[in-house]
From TrEMBL:
The gene is Loxhd1. The lineage of its organism: Eukaryota, Metazoa, Ecdysozoa, Nematoda, Enoplea. The keyword Membrane applies. It comes from the Eukaryota. Residues 69-188 form the PLAT domain. It comes from Trichinella patagoniensis. This is Lipoxygenase homology domain-containing protein 1. The chain crosses the membrane at residues 40-58. Keywords: Membrane, Transmembrane, Transmembrane helix. SMART domains: LH2. The keyword Transmembrane applies. InterPro entries: Inner_ear_hair_cell_LOXHD, PLAT/LH2_dom, PLAT/LH2_dom_sf.
Length: 204
């Protein structure tokens, strides 16, 4: 009996140690899994935080205050037979800070009958959103009137706020011609900038 009791006690002790080891192993496994889940969650949260921080503070566009200006547009008609036009002429400006609407060149400062041969017309548009440094303009006319073809020498745009004049040479026919062979729209690229105050030309 003493031997049997001793053997039984030894077996119970071994079973207890084995059970304890299993319990500790399972607890350790659960703790590791929980730590892995927490680590993954923290990693995702940190990624989202830094992504949105970078987007809003570094990649978001900065709003610039809107600056208004006055534009003086000078248009020179060529010195060719039939160079003038009776059509409606429109212009649109494109610059580094945006583009303007399409403006109708309607009221010349010098001539009631505008866009005549070898004449210069000027137009003023006041309190317009500044387009910044100009790089191109688009000139269009609607081919209306009897003499619709038009030979355009150049366009100059003076930005009063920037105190800069941008020159856009053309030396081409726009609209009209036989069977309306000339294009109604012309894109002109800036070739020259002049720094200094702009002024109205004399009536020529």
């Amino acid at each position: 009996l003493p031997k049997l009791a001793s053997t039984w006690a030894r077996l119970v002790k071994l079973d207890g140690q084995f059970l304890a080891r299993n319990v500790h192993h399972k607890l350790a496994t659960v703790v590791v899994q929980l730590l892995n889940v927490k680590t993954a969650a923290v990693t995702v949260l940190l990624f989202c935080y830094y992504y949105y921080y970078y987007y809003y503070f570094y990649n978001a566009p900065t709003s610039k205050p809107i600056m208004l200006t006055d534009y003086l547009i000078t248009v020179k008609t060529g010195n060719h037979f039939g160079a003038g036009t009776d059509s409606n002429v429109f212009i649109q400006l494109f610059g580094e800070d945006g583009h303007s609407e399409e403006w109708h060149l309607k009221h010349s400062k010098h001539h009631k009958n505008k866009f005549e041969r070898n004449k210069t017309d000027q137009f003023i548009f006041s309190q317009i959103k500044c387009c910044g440094k100009l790089y191109k303009v688009i000139v269009r006319h609607d081919n209306s009137g009897i003499c619709s073809s038009w030979h355009l020498e150049y366009v100059e745009v003076s930005d009063i706020s920037l105190r800069t004049t941008f020159r856009f040479p053309c030396h081409r026919w726009i609209g009209g011609g036989f069977f309306h062979m000339f294009p109604k729209i012309k894109q002109l690229t800036c070739t020259e900038e002049t720094i200094g105050p702009s002024k109205l030309e004399p009536s020529v």
